[in-house]
From TrEMBL:
<dbReference type="InterPro" id="IPR038584">
    <property type="entry name" value="Ribosomal_bL33_sf"/>
</dbReference>
<keyword id="KW-0689">Ribosomal protein</keyword>
<dbReference type="InterPro" id="IPR018264">
    <property type="entry name" value="Ribosomal_bL33_CS"/>
</dbReference>
<dbReference type="Pfam" id="PF00471">
    <property type="entry name" value="Ribosomal_L33"/>
</dbReference>
<protein>
    <recommendedName>
        <fullName>Large ribosomal subunit protein bL33</fullName>
    </recommendedName>
</protein>
<comment type="similarity">
    <text>Belongs to the bacterial ribosomal protein bL33 family.</text>
</comment>
<dbReference type="InterPro" id="IPR011332">
    <property type="entry name" value="Ribosomal_zn-bd"/>
</dbReference>
<dbReference type="GO" id="GO:0005840">
    <property type="term" value="C:ribosome"/>
</dbReference>
<keyword id="KW-0687">Ribonucleoprotein</keyword>
<dbReference type="InterPro" id="IPR001705">
    <property type="entry name" value="Ribosomal_bL33"/>
</dbReference>
Amino acid sequence: MTRPTDVRPKITLRSTAGTGFGYVTKKNRRNDPDRMALRKYDPVVGRHVEFREER
């Protein structure tokens, strides 16, 4: 169960390539208060693309 006051909430990173592929991870809300964007591997398109945090 995730409470809104958790320091490390679970987030979903969704691919910007439009494939619908996503990763689930945790982030530290104190260090990264804004939405996170990472370059990760998307197996549907077969290359690294940007994944953005989805709420």
